[in-house]
Amino acid sequence: MRNKAFSLVEVVVAVGIFAISIVGVIGLLAPTSKSINDVRDADDASRVVSIIQAQLQQLGFTGVQTALTGNYTYVASRNGDKLGKDDSTWTTGFTALTEPNKFFEIALTRNTTLSPSVATDANSGYLAFTISLRWPAWLPSATSNNAIKCPDAQKSVMIFPAAITR
């Protein structure tokens, strides 16, 4: 009578098929993980924009007018609890950030169609502008505890319209 068992060839073929299927499943994990990170970053960006808009409301019309004419770049931490200018001078309501904490770069740009110029601001009831967020601003350094500036070509960008009234 013949014994019922798997031959070595059958086992090798089964292990090969299993290995190929596992490699395929593992290959799907990287894009899924990147997608999850992109969604998390977009959520963080939306939260930071809300915080920026609240800060700008506190600054008032003239404060926003100054921020728009100053052509500053602002930075924020990933969760938005730290917000400041990307230089050594800080204004009221902003705090200094070290490079590893600078995740978002923020630029405020006047909407010249709706708010043409500083000269027309005296008669205007509002200022229209855009808030541009780019991230990551800084990346952890592999060789030290510091961070390195991320190249612009590798940054994600979100643009939000905004306005402030008198």
Task: Tell me what the structure shows.
The protein is an alpha+beta fold and 166 residues long. It has one domain. Helices cover 38% and strands 24% of the residues. The protein is built from 1 helix and 7 strands. The strands form 2 sheets. A 5-stranded antiparallel sheet has the order 2-1-3-4-7, with helices on one face. A two-stranded antiparallel ribbon has the order 5-6. About 4% of the residues have low confidence.
User: Which quaternary structure do these chains form?
Assistant: single chain
Largest sheet: 5 strands, antiparallel
What is the average of the pLDDT values? 81
- Mind telling me the C-alpha Rg? 26 Å
Indicate the low-confidence ranges by residue numbers: 88-93
Distance between the termini: 97 Å
Structural class: alpha+beta
The helix/strand order is HEEEEEEE
Proportion of β residues?
Answer: 15-25%
Task: Please count the beta strands (DSSP E, at least 2 residues each).
Answer: 7
Report the helical percentage: 25-40%
Identify the strand order in the major beta sheet: 2-1-3-4-7
